[in-house]
Amino acid sequence: MGIERPFWRAIAVYRVASLCYAAVLLLSAGGYARPVAGWAVFAVMALWTAGATYWYASRPGRVLVATDLLVTVVCLLASRYVQGPEAGPSGVMPVTATWVGGPVLAWAVYGGRRAGATAAIVLSAADQWVRGARELDFGVLLKGAVLMLMAGVVVGHVARLAKQAEARLQRAVEIEAAGRERERLARGIHDSVLQVLALVQRRGQEIGGAAAELGRLAGEQEVALRELIRSEPAPPDEHSESSRALVDVSALLRRLGTASVTVSTPAAPLLLPAAHAREVAAAAGAALDNVRRHCGADARAWVLADSGEGTVIVTVRDNGPGIPDGRLREAEAEGRLGIARSIRGRMADLGGTVSVVSHPGQGTEIELTVPVPEDDRGPRTGWRGLEWRTWRP
């Protein structure tokens, strides 16, 4: 609502100015053929101008914009009765005058280009009915209908861009605030917990035996904690209003990094809707779970994120023994559906694809490709001309 307030104020000024112009026309025409009806229509216009100005400033909604259009159409159609024979000739301004442009602008700000164009078409049709089919003048039509249509489309486009800019600014402010908080927490954690974990890892390696295993675990927790405090905040809840917000998939993937898992992501963000980003990260996590389960504790894995033509591509590769031919079909027949459901199922729900390449003794490579929704596509990011962030233990 914040960025829309200036629009509603500007529309209110336009309504008041148009109302004054309509009053001047009524006075100059002596109230037209039926002065009482003319001033009654003007009174309705004045009351609605005051009410609409207040309601749009407080809480605009679908009912309000629909009522706004209906009231304006009724006042416009009343011109044929108020003006009498004068309503037919081309070029004669209706009783409403330019006041009919208010709903077009309001629909454009509230609903965007298409809504503004729809309101313009409805009011143009009503205006043509007032003038009469026999009195069609393309010059008047171009000056009226086309101008209203252009106003609705242009104002709707500008309003949409303003809303997008406000959302991006809000996101940037939230990220900046979260970054400052993470830095504050990181300083305290670095001076206490991380130093203790690093000491345990070092001493465990020096002592050897069972202490070496404790040292290795402490090292992994140190790495995970470092990555946690430097990564982005958790994406919004799937059922919240902000679930449509874009989330950097790279930030979620970097949380998967451990002493045995190297995560490489581009410096520029790979943006997806929050729900999609979580599913991609979960699928990559399921692939890493398979590496730990089937390749042993000493196996290493690499996660690489990149972008393609309207897609985000995540590759998980390991140096394990590989998957024998037909093993995946056997596992699925036995009811082991790790890849079938946790990975392929997730990608299928997002409209993506999964490619598995494996040879015995040469490791396994799983490539996840998920399309970026059309409305969320921005400039391409990836390896071309950009710096890469590679996390290594």
Automatic annotation (TrEMBL):
The regions listed as transmembrane in this protein's record are 12-30, 36-56, 63-82, 140-162
Give start and end of each Histidine kinase/HSP90-like ATPase domain: 286-373
- Output this protein's name: Signal transduction histidine kinase
The molecular function terms in GO held by this entry are:
kinase activity
- List, alphabetically, the SUPFAM superfamilies matched: ATPase domain of HSP90 chaperone/DNA topoisomerase II/histidine kinase
Which Pfam families does the record associate with it?
DUF5931, HATPase_c
Tell me which domain of life the UniProt entry assigns to the organism this sequence originates from. Bacteria
Q: What is the scientific name of the source organism? A: Sphaerisporangium rubeum
Q: Where is the DUF5931 domain?
A: 1-169
Database matches in InterPro entries:
DUF5931 (IPR045975), HATPase_C_sf (IPR036890), HATPase_dom (IPR003594), Sensor_HK_TwoCompSys (IPR050482)
What are the BP-aspect GO terms? phosphorelay signal transduction system
Q: Does the keyword Transmembrane helix apply?
A: yes
Q: What Gene3D superfamilies does this protein map onto?
A: Histidine kinase-like ATPase, C-terminal domain
Keywords for this protein: Kinase, Membrane, Transferase, Transmembrane, Transmembrane helix, Two-component regulatory system
